């Protein structure tokens, strides 16, 4: 008892003497408290609201000067996921907690609200947030769900209450969702790899397939289908997952299920003529040859037509929870799991909520050219990239506005534009007008660090952002990989 008492006293003493502990105890829990804490040590702090806790949002929240800015993160997840390692966590090479970092860091003065941004009033600098910490509805999928699996917007959640949050600067870094191209059954039945919850579902399903296949009542035909793993998408994510899955089956599960490994097949499907198109052809061919030797099948120029539960033809009532993958080339094939990684789809918040500017923000927008009529009399919307649908930004990541076609002055030869000086977009949702950067963690991280450095200096008249390519690396299994760096540098083996 004395030991417990002394420990509690010592903990209270440390809390009183440790400013970080005091900082944590003063965490704001209401908008009123948040407003009251805007005063910094030296002067009033601007409030920077960051939408998203991915690579861009998380890095920016850590890099901003907390003496100059009050940093508030709004995101449906209270953590940052180190996405390049998700394939490793899905097969058990790494534990899930090693890829996660809390947004509410103990040594950072970052405030956080769990929720989704619903709408923005740019004129009044007001953000409307739907609370995200809601009780989930019963799901038809016992394995759980993710924001990337069901309806990309707000799956399996009750409608939350909406509150408003004032900002001085707003950074949109909500990221993208997995692109399914409206393929029937994919969003309902495929497994994605965008978040740690997806990795958990994949690991559970892999083990489930092996356990059902190990039952004495399971036929060889059903074993072949249960242990047939399809990966749709031949980019780095799909290729790395195929390699990690191969390692798991042939190095670890082989010891537990020695008689089942002969039934395992791993197949990569891609609509493109070759996999890993971002790599030089020599490196891509090296990867293809390694996979061929390992028995990993690669089917390029394949068109996926659908994914549904059950086996082809429903020949057996006991299907082990299998799925049927339908392709234009092979027809229907029974599989145990389909991991989908085929590119990015713009976030619904970007597609819908930011589609219209209710009132032209005259106080914070700069016109590219004089107009014959007041800009407030015109209808404006956020300018989009014609290919990706992302928000068009300048080289300082400031979002641009452009008027609707029917409200643009007829006498102007070039459509007018306006740059919002307090609204920024980073990562996958942003797009430069002329040069498109790859949607990678490396790009998002560099963008966030550059913007933080620029805002900390308080000078937006500096030279614009310049991406420095640090190279791209892809794991191929059996401790082998390929790397392509800047200026043609190549490594393999």
Key attributes of the depicted protein:
single chain; 493 residues; alpha/beta; FAD/NAD(P)-binding domain; 4-stranded parallel beta sheet; 26 strands; elongated; disordered N terminus
Tell me about this structure.
The protein has 493 residues and is α/β, with parallel strands linked by helices. The chain has two domains: 21-177 and 347-462, FAD/NAD(P)-binding domain (3-Layer(bba) Sandwich), CATH 3.50.50.60; 186-342, FAD/NAD(P)-binding domain. The chain is 26% helix and 25% strand. The strands form seven sheets. Strands 1, 2, 5, 6, 7, 8, 18, 19, 21 and 22 form a ten-stranded mixed beta sheet that branches. α1 (2-17) packs across α2, α4 (55-63) runs parallel beside α12 (441-457) and α7 (196-213) runs antiparallel to α8. Belongs to the NADH dehydrogenase family. Residues 47-348 form the FAD/NAD(P)-binding domain.
Topology:
Blueprint: H1 2-17, H2 19-25, H3 31-36, E1 46-51, H4 55-63, E2 69-75, E3 79-81, H5 86-90, E4 100-102, E5 110-121, E6 126-131, E7 162-166, E8 169-172, E9 177-178, H6 186-189, H7 196-213, H8 220-226, E10 228-232, H9 236-256, E11 265-270, H10 281-294, E12 297-300, E13 304-309, E14 323-327, E15 331-335, E16 337-340, E17 344-345, H11 348-353, E18 365-367, E19 380-382, E20 391-393, E21 398-403, E22 418-425, E23 430-432, H12 441-457, E24 472-477, E25 480-484, E26 490-492
Parallel strand pairs: 1-2, 1-8, 2-5, 8-22, 10-11, 10-16, 11-12, 20-23
Antiparallel strand pairs: 3-4, 5-6, 6-7, 9-17, 13-14, 14-15, 18-22, 19-21, 21-22, 24-25, 25-26
Helix pairs in contact: 1-2, 4-12, 7-8
